[in-house]
Write a structure and sequence with these properties.
It is built from three helices and three strands, in the order αβββαα. By secondary structure, the protein is an alpha+beta fold. It has a three-stranded antiparallel beta sheet with strand order 1-2-3, covered by helices on one side. The protein starts with a helix and ends with a helix. The protein binds zinc ion. Zinc ion (ZN) is lined by residues 14, 16, 20, 22-23, 31, 33.
């Protein structure tokens, strides 16, 4: 299950407005400020607006992003095998 190691953990954080009384706390869930997603993948940082002010909706989106990566990565090793045995391998085995 090597691909599981490559799956990013997607975090939700809050981009507070300047007027928000909780603006110093990015992990605060209950204010009406936009929620964003944040994750790291292959050494890069990704940020994406969750297009919602609801933490729970954003958390669901985060799981979706994780699942997209999971699907992508479980498909890829198989595809690589399907394209499979190289000429080199055939030559060596004969
Ligand atoms: Zn806020």
């Amino acid at each position: 299950m090597w691909y599981a190691l490559l799956m990013p953990a997607v975090h939700v954080y809050t981009r507070h407005r300047k007027t928000c009384s909780r603006k110093s706390d990015r992990a605060w869930k209950s204010c009406p400020c936009p929620k964003w997603l944040l994750w790291h993948y292959h050494g890069k940082m990704f940020r994406q607006s969750a297009s919602t002010r609801d933490w729970n909706v954003a958390a669901k989106m985060a799981r979706n992003v994780e699942q997209d990566y999971e699907r992508h990565q479980t498909r890829e090793p198989k595809a690589a095998l399907d394209n499979g045995p190289t000429l080199e391998g055939a030559v060596i085995s004969t």
